[in-house]
Amino acid sequence: MTRELIARLQAKGVRLLVSEKVMDHAGGEWDPGLAEIRIRPSTVSMGSRVLSEALAHEAAHVAQSCRAGGLGRNSEPMGIPVNAAEVFKHQLDSPLYKGPPSSKAIELEAFSVGANPPWAVKLVDHFCKG
Predict the structure, then answer these.
(1) pTM for the complete prediction?
(2) C-alpha–C-alpha distance, residues 39 and 71, integer Å
(3) CA 38 to CA 112: how far, in whole Å?
């Protein structure tokens, strides 16, 4: 699944890097300005399950950008079914996600996709045409 997602993201024009240039306390980061997903080396070293979940989470942000008009756009909620916010309360209460409720909606979608990595390929295909 991870290989398929990586291939699909690259085919859509997304660069994937293993890099320390990730915001504090995050395992990965989607940068729409560069059309780039950066995954922290420590996330990679945690094993294939953690890497798959982190990559799926960031791929959800890619799909959200596509939903907003393209890779270079800021994320916009996709309107997909999500897990109850309570499931991800600890993550959503992190200082990473301070801000308007809409940013928590965006993250709740991404955490829901991260919890179900095969879904990421479908969402990228659906929202990122071409």
Answers:
(1) 0.86
(2) 18
(3) 19
